[in-house]
Amino acid sequence: MLVTAVRYVDGEPVASGTLDEMRVEPSERTELNRFVWAGLIDPTPAELDEVIAHFALHPLAAEDAHRSHQRPKAERYGEWLFVVLRTAAYLDAPETIEFGEIQLFASPHAVVVIRRGQPAALHGVRARLEADPSSLRSGSVAVVHAVIDEVVDGYERCLAGLDDDVSEVELEVFADDHPTSERVVGRGYFLQRELLGLHRALHPLALAVTHLRTDSLVTSAPEWDAYFRDVDDHLARQQDQVSTLRELLGAALAAYSNQLSLRQNEDMRRISAWVAIVAVPTMIAGIYGMNFEHMPELGWAGGYPAALSVMLVSCLGLWLWFRRSGWL
Q1: Distant-in-sequence, close-in-space partners of 321: CB < 8 Å, separation ≥ 6
Q2: Domains (range + CATH), the chain
């Protein structure tokens, strides 16, 4: 669905409407301060074909436009720069990240932004740019930077949520009430999966932004290199943060596994100690329960209390010994 198409001249929106109404004439295409910004949300194949035909996109770019769930990248097809971004939104209750996708086609005279998925919203990007006409005077490069910067800000919000979740897992691992292994391990696994998904969005995008800084769209407006470098720095820091969170979560789960093993060993020692204590009276009772005629103690009047005394003293002695050894 075509959301809007706006024509900008010297940083100001001068008209909006259909693509045909917003056409940039060939004589105007050399002027960087004149361009059209078209936005689409979950377009149908027919709508994509209309956009492809209107802007005369390269056949390979047209093929990419019809493919969703692509790896983040930046490629050039003739006069068109093609950028794929993975958007991310953190959902607090299920502790998951919902991913979407943005495909961005940019040339000196036009920008086409295709959004797919619920988290692909670009909250206030157009409004912020229109509030600062000096940015839009630079042309479509300002839109490219603003869209990428908004996506990177979304990663920041996801990392803040995941950081809280990892901290909670660490507190659970070292809590005194010994949480159930199913809860801790299950939560840790799903958080590891979300961190991996975020890494898969961040890492290729960092490479794409580095490549963008050498693209003709950016080099033609050298004042924007500092802004793209800033985005590059943010992505590098976010990658480090993802790696740190993955290491912290892995260390917490390893510590929990060690704690679980220690608790299991302690349980086994207690069980073994009680088995040893019970074995002594069982052995004595078993001996004197044998049906032999010639057993000297059977005719002894004090044999019964003596046997009970031996059992009691032996059990008490073993209990004290295991207690002192830390097994009970």
Answers
A1: none
A2: 2-259 (3.30.460.20), 264-325 (1.20.58.340)
